Amino acid sequence: MQDQSDQTRALWVDGVSVFTPARTFDSVNPATGEVNWQVAFATAEHVAAAVASAKRAVNDPAWRKMLPHVRAGILMRIADAMTARADEFARLQMLENGKVWSECRAQALSAASTFRFYASACETLGSEVTPSRGNYLSMTAYEPYGVVAAITPWNSPLTMEAQKVAPALAAGNAVILKPSEVTPSGALLLAQVAFEAGLPKGLLNVVTGDGRETGTALVEHPDVRMVSFTGGTATGRSIAGIAAQRLIPVALELGGKSPHIIFEDANIDAAINGVVDGIFEGSGQSCVAGSRLFVQRSIYDKAVGLLVERARALRVGLPDVAGSQLGPLAGFAHRDRVERFVSIAREEGGQILAGGRRPPEAALQAGAFFEPTVIGGLSNSATAVQQEIFGPVLCVLPFGDEDDLIAQANDSAFGLASGIWTANYQRAWRVARALETGLVWINTYKQLSIATPFGGFKDSGIGREKGVNGVRLYQQSKGIYWSMDEKNFPSDGALA
Ligand code: NDP
Protein backbone atom coordinates (compact mmCIF):
# COMPACT_ATOMS: atom_id res chain seq x y z
CA MET A 1 0.00 0.00 0.00
CA GLN A 2 1.29 3.40 -0.97
CA ASP A 3 1.36 6.67 0.90
CA GLN A 4 -1.45 5.86 3.32
CA SER A 5 -0.75 7.74 6.52
CA ASP A 6 -2.73 9.47 9.23
CA GLN A 7 -2.79 12.59 7.06
CA THR A 8 -3.76 11.06 3.73
CA ARG A 9 -6.27 8.63 2.26
CA ALA A 10 -5.60 6.87 -1.04
CA LEU A 11 -8.27 5.56 -3.38
CA TRP A 12 -8.44 1.92 -4.52
CA VAL A 13 -8.06 0.91 -8.15
CA ASP A 14 -7.37 -2.68 -9.18
CA GLY A 15 -6.51 -3.71 -5.64
CA VAL A 16 -3.84 -1.02 -5.35
CA SER A 17 -4.13 2.14 -3.28
CA VAL A 18 -3.38 5.27 -5.27
CA PHE A 19 -2.53 8.71 -3.90
CA THR A 20 -1.80 11.58 -6.25
CA PRO A 21 -0.57 14.56 -4.20
CA ALA A 22 -1.40 16.97 -7.04
CA ARG A 23 -5.15 16.35 -6.73
CA THR A 24 -6.66 15.94 -3.28
CA PHE A 25 -9.54 17.23 -1.18
CA ASP A 26 -9.89 17.81 2.55
CA SER A 27 -11.92 15.65 4.88
CA VAL A 28 -13.22 18.02 7.57
CA ASN A 29 -14.43 17.20 11.08
CA PRO A 30 -17.80 19.00 11.40
CA ALA A 31 -17.57 18.99 15.20
CA THR A 32 -14.42 21.11 15.22
CA GLY A 33 -13.87 22.48 11.72
CA GLU A 34 -10.42 20.85 11.67
CA VAL A 35 -9.08 18.98 8.66
CA ASN A 36 -8.95 15.25 9.39
CA TRP A 37 -6.81 14.28 6.39
CA GLN A 38 -6.39 14.77 2.66
CA VAL A 39 -8.07 12.38 0.30
CA ALA A 40 -7.05 11.42 -3.23
CA PHE A 41 -9.43 12.82 -5.86
CA ALA A 42 -10.49 10.29 -8.49
CA THR A 43 -10.45 11.82 -11.96
CA ALA A 44 -12.19 10.40 -15.03
CA GLU A 45 -8.95 8.51 -15.75
CA HIS A 46 -9.03 6.85 -12.33
CA VAL A 47 -12.67 5.95 -12.90
CA ALA A 48 -11.85 4.42 -16.28
CA ALA A 49 -9.02 2.38 -14.75
CA ALA A 50 -11.32 1.23 -11.95
CA VAL A 51 -14.01 0.15 -14.40
CA ALA A 52 -11.46 -1.69 -16.56
CA SER A 53 -10.20 -3.50 -13.47
CA ALA A 54 -13.74 -4.40 -12.41
CA LYS A 55 -14.56 -5.68 -15.89
CA ARG A 56 -11.49 -7.92 -15.89
CA ALA A 57 -12.26 -9.21 -12.42
CA VAL A 58 -15.92 -9.96 -13.07
CA ASN A 59 -15.11 -11.89 -16.22
CA ASP A 60 -12.28 -13.84 -14.62
CA PRO A 61 -13.35 -17.49 -14.35
CA ALA A 62 -11.96 -17.47 -10.82
CA TRP A 63 -14.92 -15.23 -9.86
CA ARG A 64 -17.44 -16.12 -12.55
CA LYS A 65 -17.26 -19.82 -11.75
CA MET A 66 -16.75 -19.47 -8.01
CA LEU A 67 -19.32 -21.64 -6.27
CA PRO A 68 -21.85 -19.70 -4.20
CA HIS A 69 -20.76 -21.19 -0.89
CA VAL A 70 -17.16 -20.18 -1.58
CA ARG A 71 -18.25 -16.63 -2.45
CA ALA A 72 -20.33 -16.65 0.74
CA GLY A 73 -17.21 -17.61 2.66
CA ILE A 74 -15.46 -14.43 1.48
CA LEU A 75 -18.46 -12.29 2.51
CA MET A 76 -18.51 -14.00 5.90
CA ARG A 77 -14.80 -13.28 6.42
CA ILE A 78 -15.42 -9.61 5.50
CA ALA A 79 -18.21 -9.54 8.13
CA ASP A 80 -15.87 -10.99 10.76
CA ALA A 81 -13.10 -8.53 9.94
CA MET A 82 -15.54 -5.60 10.05
CA THR A 83 -16.81 -6.74 13.42
CA ALA A 84 -13.26 -7.00 14.74
CA ARG A 85 -12.49 -3.49 13.46
CA ALA A 86 -15.85 -1.92 14.31
CA ASP A 87 -14.28 0.77 16.48
CA GLU A 88 -12.02 1.84 13.63
CA PHE A 89 -14.94 2.08 11.19
CA ALA A 90 -17.01 3.94 13.77
CA ARG A 91 -14.25 6.43 14.50
CA LEU A 92 -13.80 7.27 10.82
CA GLN A 93 -17.50 7.93 10.42
CA MET A 94 -17.68 10.00 13.61
CA LEU A 95 -14.75 12.18 12.53
CA GLU A 96 -16.23 12.72 9.08
CA ASN A 97 -19.98 13.16 9.63
CA GLY A 98 -20.11 14.05 13.32
CA LYS A 99 -22.63 11.44 14.45
CA VAL A 100 -22.36 10.50 18.11
CA TRP A 101 -20.10 7.59 19.00
CA SER A 102 -22.84 5.14 20.06
CA GLU A 103 -24.66 5.55 16.76
CA CYS A 104 -21.46 5.22 14.71
CA ARG A 105 -20.51 2.04 16.53
CA ALA A 106 -23.98 0.54 16.14
CA GLN A 107 -23.84 1.35 12.42
CA ALA A 108 -20.41 -0.25 12.04
CA LEU A 109 -21.69 -3.48 13.61
CA SER A 110 -24.86 -3.33 11.53
CA ALA A 111 -22.76 -2.98 8.36
CA ALA A 112 -20.81 -6.10 9.33
CA SER A 113 -24.01 -8.04 9.91
CA THR A 114 -25.25 -7.00 6.47
CA PHE A 115 -22.29 -8.88 4.94
CA ARG A 116 -23.21 -11.89 7.10
CA PHE A 117 -26.85 -11.74 5.92
CA TYR A 118 -25.87 -11.61 2.24
CA ALA A 119 -23.37 -14.42 2.71
CA SER A 120 -26.31 -16.57 3.81
CA ALA A 121 -28.45 -15.33 0.93
CA CYS A 122 -25.63 -16.07 -1.50
CA GLU A 123 -25.47 -19.75 -0.64
CA THR A 124 -29.20 -20.32 -0.26
CA LEU A 125 -30.84 -18.39 -3.13
CA GLY A 126 -31.24 -20.67 -6.14
CA SER A 127 -32.56 -20.77 -9.66
CA GLU A 128 -36.22 -21.73 -10.11
CA VAL A 129 -37.94 -24.43 -12.12
CA THR A 130 -41.09 -22.81 -13.56
CA PRO A 131 -44.35 -24.53 -14.66
CA SER A 132 -43.94 -25.65 -18.25
CA ARG A 133 -46.60 -25.90 -20.97
CA GLY A 134 -45.11 -28.84 -22.82
CA ASN A 135 -42.56 -31.55 -22.56
CA TYR A 136 -39.67 -29.32 -21.59
CA LEU A 137 -37.96 -28.07 -18.50
CA SER A 138 -38.28 -24.31 -18.03
CA MET A 139 -36.13 -22.47 -15.57
CA THR A 140 -35.29 -19.00 -14.36
CA ALA A 141 -31.60 -18.48 -13.70
CA TYR A 142 -30.04 -15.26 -12.45
CA GLU A 143 -26.93 -13.60 -13.87
CA PRO A 144 -24.97 -10.64 -12.52
CA TYR A 145 -25.02 -7.38 -14.48
CA GLY A 146 -21.22 -7.21 -14.48
CA VAL A 147 -19.82 -3.87 -13.34
CA VAL A 148 -22.10 -2.12 -10.82
CA ALA A 149 -21.67 1.49 -9.67
CA ALA A 150 -22.64 2.11 -6.03
CA ILE A 151 -22.98 5.79 -5.06
CA THR A 152 -23.55 6.58 -1.39
CA PRO A 153 -24.35 9.63 0.76
CA TRP A 154 -22.74 10.99 3.91
CA ASN A 155 -25.41 10.50 6.55
CA SER A 156 -25.01 6.75 7.19
CA PRO A 157 -22.17 5.72 4.89
CA LEU A 158 -21.14 2.52 6.67
CA THR A 159 -24.57 0.90 6.57
CA MET A 160 -25.45 2.11 3.09
CA GLU A 161 -22.16 0.99 1.61
CA ALA A 162 -22.61 -2.48 3.11
CA GLN A 163 -26.22 -2.47 1.90
CA LYS A 164 -25.01 -2.07 -1.69
CA VAL A 165 -21.63 -3.79 -1.81
CA ALA A 166 -22.62 -7.01 0.00
CA PRO A 167 -25.65 -7.95 -2.17
CA ALA A 168 -23.93 -6.80 -5.37
CA LEU A 169 -20.96 -9.10 -4.65
CA ALA A 170 -23.28 -11.90 -3.50
CA ALA A 171 -24.99 -11.56 -6.88
CA GLY A 172 -21.67 -12.09 -8.67
CA ASN A 173 -20.86 -8.53 -9.77
CA ALA A 174 -17.81 -6.33 -9.41
CA VAL A 175 -18.46 -3.00 -7.67
CA ILE A 176 -17.11 0.51 -8.10
CA LEU A 177 -18.00 2.38 -4.93
CA LYS A 178 -18.16 6.16 -4.93
CA PRO A 179 -18.68 7.43 -1.39
CA SER A 180 -19.64 11.02 -0.70
CA GLU A 181 -16.69 13.41 -0.58
CA VAL A 182 -17.87 14.23 2.97
CA THR A 183 -17.36 10.65 4.19
CA PRO A 184 -14.80 8.83 2.04
CA SER A 185 -12.83 6.90 4.66
CA GLY A 186 -15.16 4.08 5.70
CA ALA A 187 -15.40 2.94 2.07
CA LEU A 188 -11.62 2.96 1.75
CA LEU A 189 -11.22 0.87 4.90
CA LEU A 190 -13.94 -1.50 3.67
CA ALA A 191 -11.93 -2.21 0.50
CA GLN A 192 -8.78 -2.88 2.51
CA VAL A 193 -10.65 -5.22 4.85
CA ALA A 194 -12.28 -6.99 1.91
CA PHE A 195 -8.96 -7.65 0.17
CA GLU A 196 -7.44 -8.90 3.41
CA ALA A 197 -10.44 -11.23 3.74
CA GLY A 198 -9.67 -12.73 0.33
CA LEU A 199 -11.82 -10.74 -2.11
CA PRO A 200 -9.98 -10.89 -5.44
CA LYS A 201 -8.61 -7.49 -6.45
CA GLY A 202 -10.73 -5.53 -8.91
CA LEU A 203 -14.02 -6.76 -7.47
CA LEU A 204 -14.21 -3.69 -5.27
CA ASN A 205 -12.74 -0.39 -6.44
CA VAL A 206 -13.28 2.81 -4.46
CA VAL A 207 -13.17 6.15 -6.28
CA THR A 208 -13.14 9.10 -3.91
CA GLY A 209 -14.00 12.46 -5.39
CA ASP A 210 -17.01 14.68 -5.91
CA GLY A 211 -20.35 13.92 -7.49
CA ARG A 212 -20.05 16.33 -10.39
CA GLU A 213 -16.78 14.98 -11.82
CA THR A 214 -16.12 11.53 -10.33
CA GLY A 215 -19.76 10.50 -9.96
CA THR A 216 -20.72 11.62 -13.46
CA ALA A 217 -17.69 9.88 -15.03
CA LEU A 218 -18.79 6.69 -13.33
CA VAL A 219 -22.46 6.80 -14.33
CA GLU A 220 -21.57 7.70 -17.91
CA HIS A 221 -18.93 4.99 -18.34
CA PRO A 222 -20.09 2.58 -21.06
CA ASP A 223 -18.96 -0.52 -19.16
CA VAL A 224 -20.99 0.29 -16.03
CA ARG A 225 -24.08 -1.90 -16.42
CA MET A 226 -26.14 -0.91 -13.37
CA VAL A 227 -26.22 1.99 -10.88
CA SER A 228 -27.34 1.79 -7.26
CA PHE A 229 -27.69 5.26 -5.75
CA THR A 230 -28.71 6.71 -2.38
CA GLY A 231 -28.94 10.46 -1.95
CA GLY A 232 -30.96 13.49 -2.94
CA THR A 233 -33.95 13.39 -5.28
CA ALA A 234 -32.45 15.96 -7.69
CA THR A 235 -29.25 13.93 -8.05
CA GLY A 236 -31.23 10.71 -8.40
CA ARG A 237 -33.27 12.24 -11.19
CA SER A 238 -30.16 13.34 -13.06
CA ILE A 239 -28.55 9.89 -12.70
CA ALA A 240 -31.79 8.26 -13.88
CA GLY A 241 -31.69 10.54 -16.96
CA ILE A 242 -28.22 9.31 -17.92
CA ALA A 243 -29.18 5.70 -17.18
CA ALA A 244 -32.28 6.05 -19.38
CA GLN A 245 -30.13 7.17 -22.31
CA ARG A 246 -27.74 4.29 -21.69
CA LEU A 247 -30.60 1.81 -21.12
CA ILE A 248 -29.15 0.52 -17.87
CA PRO A 249 -31.14 -0.17 -14.72
CA VAL A 250 -30.96 2.07 -11.65
CA ALA A 251 -31.98 1.60 -8.05
CA LEU A 252 -32.68 4.92 -6.35
CA GLU A 253 -33.12 5.51 -2.62
CA LEU A 254 -33.95 9.20 -2.36
CA GLY A 255 -35.26 11.75 0.07
CA GLY A 256 -38.30 11.76 2.33
CA LYS A 257 -40.62 13.97 4.34
CA SER A 258 -42.17 11.28 6.43
CA PRO A 259 -45.48 11.83 8.23
CA HIS A 260 -45.49 10.72 11.85
CA ILE A 261 -49.03 10.46 13.21
CA ILE A 262 -50.43 10.44 16.76
CA PHE A 263 -54.12 9.56 17.23
CA GLU A 264 -55.97 10.61 20.38
CA ASP A 265 -56.10 7.00 21.67
CA ALA A 266 -52.33 6.45 21.43
CA ASN A 267 -50.03 5.69 24.35
CA ILE A 268 -48.82 9.26 24.46
CA ASP A 269 -45.53 8.65 26.29
CA ALA A 270 -44.49 5.91 23.90
CA ALA A 271 -45.55 8.06 20.95
CA ILE A 272 -43.51 11.05 22.09
CA ASN A 273 -40.45 8.81 22.59
CA GLY A 274 -40.91 7.53 19.05
CA VAL A 275 -41.33 11.01 17.64
CA VAL A 276 -38.24 12.36 19.43
CA ASP A 277 -36.06 9.45 18.24
CA GLY A 278 -37.65 9.50 14.81
CA ILE A 279 -36.62 13.07 14.05
CA PHE A 280 -33.66 13.93 16.28
CA GLU A 281 -31.50 10.79 16.12
CA GLY A 282 -28.53 11.53 13.88
CA SER A 283 -29.50 15.22 14.09
CA GLY A 284 -32.36 14.53 11.70
CA GLN A 285 -30.01 13.54 8.87
CA SER A 286 -31.92 10.47 7.91
CA CYS A 287 -33.99 9.78 4.83
CA VAL A 288 -36.70 8.21 7.03
CA ALA A 289 -36.72 10.99 9.65
CA GLY A 290 -40.28 11.58 10.83
CA SER A 291 -40.15 15.28 10.00
CA ARG A 292 -43.88 16.07 9.65
CA LEU A 293 -45.78 15.37 12.86
CA PHE A 294 -49.58 15.18 12.67
CA VAL A 295 -51.36 15.16 16.04
CA GLN A 296 -55.12 14.69 16.46
CA ARG A 297 -56.58 18.05 17.48
CA SER A 298 -58.09 16.82 20.80
CA ILE A 299 -54.61 16.00 22.19
CA TYR A 300 -52.57 18.52 20.18
CA ASP A 301 -51.69 20.93 23.00
CA LYS A 302 -50.78 18.16 25.42
CA ALA A 303 -48.62 16.26 22.90
CA VAL A 304 -46.83 19.35 21.64
CA GLY A 305 -46.16 20.49 25.22
CA LEU A 306 -44.52 17.14 26.05
CA LEU A 307 -42.57 17.16 22.83
CA VAL A 308 -41.19 20.65 23.32
CA GLU A 309 -40.10 19.73 26.83
CA ARG A 310 -38.24 16.68 25.47
CA ALA A 311 -36.65 18.57 22.58
CA ARG A 312 -35.32 21.26 24.93
CA ALA A 313 -33.83 18.62 27.25
CA LEU A 314 -31.83 16.84 24.53
CA ARG A 315 -28.08 17.20 24.93
CA VAL A 316 -26.30 18.63 21.88
CA GLY A 317 -22.59 17.97 22.22
CA LEU A 318 -19.29 16.80 20.83
CA PRO A 319 -19.86 13.36 19.32
CA ASP A 320 -17.12 11.64 21.32
CA VAL A 321 -18.33 12.98 24.69
CA ALA A 322 -20.41 10.48 26.66
CA GLY A 323 -23.97 11.68 27.05
CA SER A 324 -24.12 13.69 23.82
CA GLN A 325 -27.39 12.85 22.07
CA LEU A 326 -27.03 15.05 18.98
CA GLY A 327 -23.72 15.78 17.29
CA PRO A 328 -23.19 18.50 14.69
CA LEU A 329 -24.65 18.46 11.22
CA ALA A 330 -22.34 16.79 8.71
CA GLY A 331 -21.00 20.04 7.27
CA PHE A 332 -21.07 23.80 7.59
CA ALA A 333 -22.82 24.47 4.28
CA HIS A 334 -25.46 21.94 5.27
CA ARG A 335 -25.95 23.64 8.65
CA ASP A 336 -26.43 26.96 6.81
CA ARG A 337 -29.04 25.32 4.60
CA VAL A 338 -30.95 23.98 7.62
CA GLU A 339 -30.80 27.43 9.19
CA ARG A 340 -32.22 28.98 6.00
CA PHE A 341 -35.20 26.61 6.15
CA VAL A 342 -35.90 27.77 9.71
CA SER A 343 -35.75 31.42 8.60
CA ILE A 344 -38.16 30.68 5.76
CA ALA A 345 -40.50 28.95 8.23
CA ARG A 346 -40.48 32.10 10.39
CA GLU A 347 -41.22 34.27 7.34
CA GLU A 348 -44.12 31.99 6.41
CA GLY A 349 -45.71 32.41 9.85
CA GLY A 350 -44.19 29.45 11.75
CA GLN A 351 -43.68 29.64 15.50
CA ILE A 352 -40.38 28.28 16.79
CA LEU A 353 -41.48 26.25 19.82
CA ALA A 354 -38.03 24.83 20.60
CA GLY A 355 -34.50 25.40 19.29
CA GLY A 356 -34.25 27.26 16.00
CA ARG A 357 -30.67 28.43 16.57
CA ARG A 358 -27.05 27.37 17.00
CA PRO A 359 -26.31 26.24 20.57
CA PRO A 360 -24.65 28.99 22.63
CA GLU A 361 -22.11 26.74 24.47
CA ALA A 362 -18.51 27.87 23.95
CA ALA A 363 -17.29 24.29 23.35
CA LEU A 364 -19.57 23.98 20.30
CA GLN A 365 -18.79 27.23 18.52
CA ALA A 366 -16.23 25.77 16.09
CA GLY A 367 -18.61 23.02 14.89
CA ALA A 368 -21.67 22.84 12.63
CA PHE A 369 -24.16 22.43 15.48
CA PHE A 370 -27.86 23.26 15.47
CA GLU A 371 -30.40 22.86 18.25
CA PRO A 372 -33.29 20.39 18.03
CA THR A 373 -36.09 22.49 16.63
CA VAL A 374 -39.87 22.23 16.78
CA ILE A 375 -42.00 24.48 14.59
CA GLY A 376 -45.75 24.95 14.88
CA GLY A 377 -48.29 27.18 13.16
CA LEU A 378 -47.45 26.25 9.57
CA SER A 379 -49.87 24.88 7.00
CA ASN A 380 -49.16 21.63 5.18
CA SER A 381 -48.18 23.62 2.07
CA ALA A 382 -45.42 25.63 3.80
CA THR A 383 -41.85 25.26 2.49
CA ALA A 384 -40.51 23.70 5.70
CA VAL A 385 -43.36 21.18 5.72
CA GLN A 386 -43.03 20.16 2.09
CA GLN A 387 -39.26 20.19 1.48
CA GLU A 388 -36.75 17.81 2.98
CA ILE A 389 -34.61 19.75 5.47
CA PHE A 390 -32.43 16.82 6.50
CA GLY A 391 -31.73 18.35 9.89
CA PRO A 392 -33.11 18.37 13.46
CA VAL A 393 -36.26 20.25 12.51
CA LEU A 394 -39.76 18.95 13.19
CA CYS A 395 -42.93 20.63 11.92
CA VAL A 396 -46.09 19.88 13.93
CA LEU A 397 -49.61 20.12 12.51
CA PRO A 398 -53.06 19.28 13.90
CA PHE A 399 -55.59 17.05 12.14
CA GLY A 400 -59.31 16.44 12.67
CA ASP A 401 -60.41 12.99 11.54
CA GLU A 402 -58.88 10.09 9.64
CA ASP A 403 -59.84 11.47 6.19
CA ASP A 404 -58.28 14.83 6.97
CA LEU A 405 -55.15 13.08 8.22
CA ILE A 406 -54.74 10.88 5.14
CA ALA A 407 -55.30 13.80 2.77
CA GLN A 408 -52.64 15.88 4.53
CA ALA A 409 -50.15 13.04 5.05
CA ASN A 410 -50.29 12.01 1.37
CA ASP A 411 -50.05 15.59 0.14
CA SER A 412 -46.30 15.32 -0.42
CA ALA A 413 -43.99 14.70 -3.36
CA PHE A 414 -42.20 12.11 -1.23
CA GLY A 415 -43.32 8.67 -0.08
CA LEU A 416 -40.56 6.99 1.87
CA ALA A 417 -41.83 6.22 5.39
CA SER A 418 -44.58 6.95 7.89
CA GLY A 419 -45.43 6.18 11.50
CA ILE A 420 -48.79 5.65 13.21
CA TRP A 421 -49.49 5.68 16.95
CA THR A 422 -52.91 4.34 17.93
CA ALA A 423 -54.47 1.72 20.21
CA ASN A 424 -57.07 0.83 17.56
CA TYR A 425 -55.72 -2.03 15.44
CA GLN A 426 -58.41 -1.67 12.76
CA ARG A 427 -57.56 1.98 12.29
CA ALA A 428 -53.85 1.15 12.25
CA TRP A 429 -54.47 -1.27 9.37
CA ARG A 430 -56.73 1.14 7.43
CA VAL A 431 -54.31 4.04 7.75
CA ALA A 432 -51.23 1.91 7.02
CA ARG A 433 -52.83 0.76 3.74
CA ALA A 434 -53.92 4.29 2.78
CA LEU A 435 -50.56 5.99 3.33
CA GLU A 436 -48.52 6.38 0.14
CA THR A 437 -45.19 5.33 1.62
CA GLY A 438 -42.83 2.40 1.08
CA LEU A 439 -42.52 1.78 4.83
CA VAL A 440 -45.06 2.08 7.64
CA TRP A 441 -44.26 1.78 11.34
CA ILE A 442 -47.14 1.07 13.74
CA ASN A 443 -46.57 1.95 17.41
CA THR A 444 -42.84 2.09 16.75
CA TYR A 445 -40.53 4.10 14.52
CA LYS A 446 -37.19 3.65 12.76
CA GLN A 447 -36.88 -0.02 13.65
CA LEU A 448 -35.15 -1.62 10.69
CA SER A 449 -34.13 -5.11 9.71
CA ILE A 450 -31.86 -6.08 6.86
CA ALA A 451 -34.36 -8.88 6.13
CA THR A 452 -37.16 -6.43 5.19
CA PRO A 453 -37.22 -4.69 1.79
CA PHE A 454 -36.63 -0.94 1.94
CA GLY A 455 -37.52 1.79 -0.56
CA GLY A 456 -39.87 4.60 -1.42
CA PHE A 457 -43.02 5.50 -3.31
CA LYS A 458 -43.27 8.64 -5.49
CA ASP A 459 -40.19 10.94 -5.49
CA SER A 460 -38.55 8.83 -2.79
CA GLY A 461 -37.15 6.34 -5.22
CA ILE A 462 -37.29 3.34 -7.49
CA GLY A 463 -36.48 -0.24 -6.50
CA ARG A 464 -36.14 -1.99 -3.17
CA GLU A 465 -32.89 -2.68 -1.36
CA LYS A 466 -32.42 -5.11 1.53
CA GLY A 467 -34.21 -8.39 2.13
CA VAL A 468 -33.08 -11.68 0.61
CA ASN A 469 -34.31 -10.41 -2.74
CA GLY A 470 -31.89 -7.48 -2.39
CA VAL A 471 -29.52 -9.84 -4.23
CA ARG A 472 -31.92 -9.91 -7.21
CA LEU A 473 -31.63 -6.12 -7.54
CA TYR A 474 -28.12 -6.80 -8.80
CA GLN A 475 -29.03 -9.64 -11.15
CA GLN A 476 -30.88 -10.08 -14.42
CA SER A 477 -33.09 -13.08 -14.92
CA LYS A 478 -32.62 -15.52 -17.75
CA GLY A 479 -35.35 -17.89 -18.92
CA ILE A 480 -34.03 -21.28 -20.02
CA TYR A 481 -36.13 -23.81 -21.98
CA TRP A 482 -34.72 -27.31 -22.26
CA SER A 483 -36.62 -29.80 -24.38
CA MET A 484 -37.29 -33.28 -23.08
CA ASP A 485 -38.69 -34.37 -26.45
CA GLU A 486 -37.02 -34.21 -29.91
CA LYS A 487 -40.25 -32.98 -31.58
CA ASN A 488 -41.52 -30.55 -29.01
CA PHE A 489 -41.76 -27.28 -31.00
CA PRO A 490 -44.64 -24.76 -30.75
CA SER A 491 -45.47 -25.35 -34.45
CA ASP A 492 -45.71 -29.05 -33.61
CA GLY A 493 -43.14 -29.77 -36.29
CA ALA A 494 -45.29 -28.33 -39.15
CA LEU A 495 -42.32 -26.37 -40.54
CA ALA A 496 -39.84 -29.24 -40.23
P1 NDP B 1 -26.38 14.07 -3.12
O1 NDP B 1 -27.49 13.47 -3.84
O2 NDP B 1 -25.77 15.32 -3.63
O3 NDP B 1 -25.17 13.03 -2.95
C1 NDP B 1 -25.29 11.64 -2.78
C2 NDP B 1 -24.13 10.97 -3.50
O4 NDP B 1 -24.21 11.24 -4.90
C3 NDP B 1 -22.76 11.49 -3.08
O5 NDP B 1 -21.81 10.45 -3.16
C4 NDP B 1 -22.48 12.56 -4.12
O6 NDP B 1 -21.11 12.84 -4.25
C5 NDP B 1 -23.01 11.85 -5.35
N1 NDP B 1 -23.35 12.74 -6.45
C6 NDP B 1 -23.72 14.05 -6.40
N2 NDP B 1 -23.98 14.50 -7.66
C7 NDP B 1 -23.77 13.46 -8.51
C8 NDP B 1 -23.87 13.29 -9.92
N3 NDP B 1 -24.26 14.29 -10.70
N4 NDP B 1 -23.58 12.10 -10.45
C9 NDP B 1 -23.20 11.06 -9.67
N5 NDP B 1 -23.08 11.16 -8.33
C10 NDP B 1 -23.37 12.34 -7.74
O7 NDP B 1 -26.86 14.24 -1.68
P2 NDP B 1 -26.21 15.13 -0.57
O8 NDP B 1 -25.25 14.26 0.12
O9 NDP B 1 -25.65 16.42 -1.01
O10 NDP B 1 -27.50 15.38 0.26
C11 NDP B 1 -28.49 16.22 -0.29
C12 NDP B 1 -29.83 15.66 0.00
O11 NDP B 1 -29.88 14.27 -0.33
C13 NDP B 1 -30.21 15.67 1.45
O12 NDP B 1 -30.66 16.90 1.87
C14 NDP B 1 -31.29 14.64 1.40
O13 NDP B 1 -32.42 15.20 0.82
C15 NDP B 1 -30.81 13.62 0.46
N6 NDP B 1 -30.18 12.47 1.08
C16 NDP B 1 -30.90 11.33 1.14
C17 NDP B 1 -30.36 10.24 1.73
C18 NDP B 1 -31.07 8.97 1.82
O14 NDP B 1 -30.69 8.13 2.64
N7 NDP B 1 -32.10 8.69 1.02
C19 NDP B 1 -29.05 10.27 2.34
C20 NDP B 1 -28.35 11.51 2.17
C21 NDP B 1 -28.91 12.55 1.54
P3 NDP B 1 -20.45 14.04 -3.41
O15 NDP B 1 -21.07 14.06 -2.06
O16 NDP B 1 -19.03 13.61 -3.37
O17 NDP B 1 -20.67 15.28 -4.19
Q: Can you offer a commentary on this structure?
A:
The protein has a seven-stranded mixed sheet, sandwiched between helices. The chain is globular. By secondary structure, the protein is an alpha/beta fold. Helix 1 runs parallel beside helix 8. The chain has two domains: 8-254 and 460-479, Aldehyde Dehydrogenase, Chain A, domain 1; 259-442, Aldehyde Dehydrogenase, Chain A, domain 2 (3-Layer(aba) Sandwich), CATH 3.40.309. It is built from 15 helices and 23 strands. 38% of the residues lie in helices and 20% in strands. The model has no long low-confidence stretch (mean pLDDT 96). The structure holds NADPH dihydro-nicotinamide-adenine-dinucleotide phosphate. NADPH dihydro-nicotinamide-adenine-dinucleotide phosphate binds next to helix 8 and helix 9.
